[in-house]
Amino acid sequence: MSNNEIREKRKKVICDLVKDDFYVPMKEKELAMFLQVAKEDREEFREILRELLAEGKLTLTVKGKYMKSNGKVLTGTFISNAKGFGFVEVEGRDEDLFIPEDKQGGAFHKDTVEVALLPAKTGKRQEAQVIRIIARGMTQVVGTYEQSKSNFGFVIPDNTKIAQDIFVPKEWSKGAMTGHKVVVEITGYGTNTKSPEGKVVEILGHINDPGVDIMSIVRGFDLPVEFGEKIMSQVERVSQEVSEADCAGRRDLRDVTMVTIDGEDAKDLDDAVSVSFDGTYYHLGVHIADVTNYVQENSALDREALKRGTSVYLVDRVIPMLPHALSNGICSLNEGVDRLALSCLMKVDEEGEIVDYEICESVIRVNKRMSYTVVKKLLEEPECVEHNADMPDGTSGEGIEISTDYSQYRELLPMFQQMAELADKLRKKRQKRGSIDFDFPECKILLDKEGHPLDIKPYERNIATMLIEDFMLAANETVAQHFYWQELPFVYRVHDVPDPERIQKLSTFISNYGYYMKALGRRNSKVSTEEIHPKEIQKLLQKIEGTPEEPMIARLTLRSMKQAKYSTECTGHFGLACQYYCHFTSPIRRYPDLQIHRIIKEQLRGRLKEERIEHYREILPEVAKHSSEMERRADEAERETDKLKKVEYMEQHIGEEYEGVISGVTGWGLYVELPNTVEGLIHISTIPGDYYHYNEAACEMVGEATGRCFKLGMPVRIEVEDCDRFMRTINFRLVDK
Question: What's in the keyword line of the UniProt record (predicted)?
Answer without folding.
Answer: Coiled coil, Cytoplasm, Exonuclease, Hydrolase, Nuclease, RNA-binding
